[in-house]
Amino acid sequence: MRRLIALLILLLTLAPALAQERDPNIAESIQIGLSTDTVTITSDFSGADLTIFGAVDGADPLISRQGGYDVVVVLEGPARAVTVWRRARVLGVWVNSRSETFVNVPLSYSVSTTRFLQDITNPTTYKQLSLGAQNIYLQPERKRANPFITEEFTAALRERKLATGLYVERIGGVQFLSQTLFRATLNLPADVPVGTHRARAFLFKHGSFAGETSSTLVIRKAGFEQSVYDIAHQYSMFYGLFAVVLAMVTGWLGRMIFRRD
Amino acid sequence: MGIYLPIAEMSVNVFVLLAMGAAVGFLSGMFGVGGGFLITPLLIFYNIPPAIAVATGANQVIASSFSGALAHLKRGTVDIKLGLVLLVGGIFGSSAGAAVFALLRAYGQLDLAVSLLYVGFLGTVGGMMLIESVNAIRRSRSGQPPSLRRPGQHNWIHRLPLKMRFRASKLFVSVIPILGLGAAIGFLAAIMGVGGGFIMVPAMIYLLKVPTNVVIGTSLFQIMFVTAYTTVVQATLNQTVDIVLAFLLMVGGVAGAQYGAKVGQKLRGDQLRALLAALVLAVALRLAFDLFVAPGSIYELSIPEGP
Fold first, then answer.
1. With DSSP H G I counted as helix, E B as strand and the rest as coil, what are the percentages for chain B, rounded to 5?
2. Is B302 inside a domain boundary?
3. Sign of the CA dihedral B12, B13, B17, B18?
4. Which of residues 60-99 of B touch A (CB under 8 A)?
5. B60-101 confidence digits (pLDDT tens)
6. pTM for the whole structure
7. What is the CATH number of the domain that holds A147?
8. ipTM summary value
9. Are residues A244 and A195 in the same domain?
10. Are A112 and A52 in a shared domain?
11. Cβ separation of B255 and A258 shorter than 8 Å?
């Protein structure tokens, strides 16, 4: 079931943009608002669309009409260390051989844009902003790793994340509803990691970076699922015993219901 | 209909899991096995992380073996004393297995170890069973006596010290092979998520010379305790038992088992063994295929444990 989690905008109290290192000629700033700071994953969760509303404050109507503004919205999952294994053939069998661990890798990374990324701005800007699945900076755990090996494993990490749908790009997922107001739709995959996610919005004006804003969103399991998880980790012995009793009761009931002797 | 598994942290289809449980339950009822050796590979094929598939598989086996053991206890076809001695060995084996499991997981080699063990054991046992049952079918067709083995025959196992008497099985044997067999099964239960019936039953018949009428009941009785112990140890050490996943499989399993048992009663013993052998070999081949054939991507991600 795809659920639409609509998040409202908080346009009324928009404060002037914070002082940032950017072109003084740019008068615009970008704002996003979330109506809720938590999303709960219920037992029937199988992925969802997350909608974020936002506005370009102080937008020039002329540039707006020309389509000079571009917005990129990102939902970054919680960061964890991730190990990339490379498999190799040993006696005909594929085994995990070499590995490289990266620290602070966002477990999920969902991007939504107004246009193709390459049409919005140049690769250098993306690299500087660490924006986009191909551009996020991935830091290897070992400081003196061989740069060629690191490059290979970095590429593999991105490729695996994209292949499993945890890193996803949605071209055209951001739409302008008026000259200033926009709506961004982001993918939440079925196996979206739980934890604190960060929603970030980037504004580009005629291809140059014009501002950024961010907001946090907590994704957690709903009551039952969270309780099961907590009990399994905090009272693991009790949980194990309960699992055994449940199995025995199910086995016994099955015999009662379908008894044949 | 999707359901979110709290421990595996992924969304799965309820009906797929119920059907999987029912299919395995049907086969386990038909052949009188726990079905753990089928459930764990099926869960792995369904993209459940192997660590969770193994621990949850053990949990699921409790339900089917408990229900089976109850039936045998009622008929009096369980050698409780023999079962308890096997269990003592099983507890040591299972504890060692869970520790090795945690170690393999830390080194990123768990998936490989699970697959290799499955291919090795299922391949060997399936192959042996197939040869034995095909020979039995041939012999019965040509009108020869069904078995050339005599239960009274003794082998090296019967010359070991520390002998103990088992009345229900009419046995007087050393406890060493029994403890050893129990420990081996316990070890496999922890690493492979199986009850071990497919190894236990032939070992009891051919090595210990236990009369066939008490073999299945005693094996189920012991498997029930070993898998229960394994479940608790896995839950405590590795937190890999997914109770929602296990429950769905059990519900499908107990229902399927009853119908499987009815079909099983209509087939002859040697035919049943030949079918089971073919099934075991098919699972082994499927797993071997994944081991030897180049994977879609040679890279794999994992999240290291700890801070």
1. 70, 5, 20
2. no
3. positive
4. 60, 62-67, 70-71, 74
5. 888 888 888 888 888 887 888 888 888 899 889 988 988 888
6. 0.73
7. 2.60.40.2550
8. 0.79
9. no
10. yes
11. yes
